[in-house]
From TrEMBL:
CDD domains: TM_PBP1_LivM_like (cd06581). It comes from Aquibaculum arenosum. Coiled coil: none annotated. This is Branched-chain amino acid ABC transporter permease. PANTHER family: ABC TRANSPORTER ATP-BINDING PROTEIN (PTHR30482:SF17), HIGH-AFFINITY BRANCHED-CHAIN AMINO ACID TRANSPORT SYSTEM PERMEASE (PTHR30482). It is a multi-pass membrane protein. InterPro entries: ABC_transp_permease, LivM-like. It is found in: Cell membrane.
C-alpha cells in the first residue's frame, strides 16, 4: 500500500512524540519533556476546537474557559483535600459538559458574528467568576499541592504525564475521526454549509451541533486537567479570550477542517514562540508577520501543503486527516 505525504507526516510526528522522552533522557534535557507535554496539551484542546470550527463552522472565542474549568476542577479538589485521579477526571469532564450544555444551548440559538460575541461574553463572565473566588486565590491564581494519581500512575511525574497526554491526544484524534466520518459528522458538515437544507431533510441540526459543542468542550476540559498537573498552578487568566484566540490560530495554522492539522498548528506555533523568545522579549512582534504569511500563502494550513496540488480543491474543508 502506497502512503501519501499526509499519512507519512502523521506517522512521523506521532512516532517522534512517542520517542521524545527517550531523546530528552539521552541528551539530558528534562525541559524538552515539559515543553512537549505543553505542546500536546494545547494540541489536544485545539483538536476539540477543530471539531466545531473546522467541521461545524462555529467560531468560538470562549473555549479557553473549558480549559480553565478542567484546571480548576483539579485545583479545587486538591484545595479541599480530595486525592485520587477519578474524582479529578469526573469533575473536570462533568463540569465541562454541564457548563457547555447550558452555554451551548444559548449560544447555538445565534449564528455568525452573534455567536462569536456571545461566546466571548460567556468567557469574560467566567473570567470574573474565577477572580471572585478568593478561596481559590482570586486574581492571583492558586498553587496546586500534588498531581493527579490514577492507580499506580502519578501525573506529577513528568514522564507519566507526558505519555498520559500522548495517549489522550491519540484518543481524541481517533474519536474525532470516527465522529467526522459518521452520519453525525455528515450532519455537522452539512449544517455548516446549509443548515436550512439539512433541517428540511429531517435532521435535528440544533441537537447535533449542541452535541458537537459539548464534546469539544469536554476535550478542552480534559486538556485543562492535564495542564493543571503540568504547571501545578491555575489562574483566571486561563479563561481570557486571547487564550481562545491562540487555539483558533493553531487550528487555522495547521489546517482548518483537517483532523491532524491542529496538532501541526500547535507544534508550529509553540516552536516559533519558543525559538523567537530566545532572541527577543518582543517575540509576538515577529510571530505576527510569520502567521500572516502562512495564512496568505498556505490558505489550507500547514497540513494542506502536504496535499497534492490537484487534490487541494477537493479536500478543502473536508474530513481528511
Amino acid at each position: 500500500m502506497r502512503l501519501d505525504l499526509r499519512t507519512i507526516t502523521v506517522i512521523v510526528v506521532l512516532a517522534g512524540l512517542a520517542l521524545m522522552p527517550l531523546l530528552a533522557w539521552a541528551v539530558d534535557e528534562p525541559y524538552w519533556l515539559r515543553f512537549w507535554s505543553r505542546v500536546m496539551i494545547l494540541a489536544l484542546a485545539a483538536v476539540g476546537v477543530n471539531l466545531i470550527l473546522g467541521f461545524g463552522g462555529m467560531v468560538s472565542f470562549g473555549h479557553a474557559m473549558y480549559i480553565a474549568i478542567g484546571a480548576y476542577a483539579v485545583g479545587a479538589l486538591r484545595f479541599h483535600g480530595v486525592e485520587g485521579g477519578l474524582p479529578d477526571l469526573l469533575l473536570a469532564v462533568g463540569a465541562g459538559a454541564l457548563v457547555a450544555l447550558i452555554i451551548g444551548a444559548i449560544c447555538l440559538r445565534t449564528a455568525g458574528i452573534y455567536f462569536i460575541m456571545i461566546t466571548l461574553a460567556f468567557a469574560q463572565m467566567t473570567y470574573f467568576f474565577f477572580i471572585s473566588q478568593e478561596q481559590y486565590g482570586g486574581d492571583d491564581g492558586m498553587r496546586i499541592e500534588g498531581g493527579t494519581r490514577l492507580g499506580p500512575l502519578d501525573l506529577s511525574n513528568d514522564a507519566t504525564l507526558y505519555y498520559a497526554t500522548f495517549l489522550l491526544l491519540c484518543g481524541a484524534l481517533l474519536v474525532s475521526w470516527r465522529l467526522v466520518n459518521s452520519r453525525f459528522g455528515m450532519v455537522i458538515r452539512g449544517a455548516r454549509s446549509n443548515e436550512q437544507r439539512m433541517t428540511a431533510l429531517g435532521f435535528p441540526t440544533y441537537r447535533y451541533r449542541l452535541t458537537a459543542y459539548v464534546i469539544s468542550a469536554v476535550i478542552c476540559a480534559i486538556a485543562g486537567a492535564l495542564l493543571a498537573n503540568l504547571t501545578l498552578y491555575v489562574s483566571p487568566a486561563y479563561t481570557h479570550w486571547t487564550r481562545s484566540g491562540e487555539l483558533l490560530i493553531m487550528v487555522i495554522l495547521g489546517g482548518l477542517g483537517s483532523l491532524f492539522g491542529p496538532v501541526l498548528g500547535a507544534i508550529a506555533l509553540l516552536l516559533l514562540e519558543d525559538v523567537i523568545a530566545h532572541f527577543t522579549r518582543h517575540w509576538q512582534l515577529f510571530l505576527g508577520p510569520i502567521l500572516i504569511l502562512v495564512v496568505i500563502f498556505a490558505r489550507e494550513g500547514l497540513f494542506g501543503l502536504l496535499t497534492p496540488r490537484r487534490q487541494r480543491s477537493h479536500t478543502a474543508g473536508g474530513s481528511h486527516g
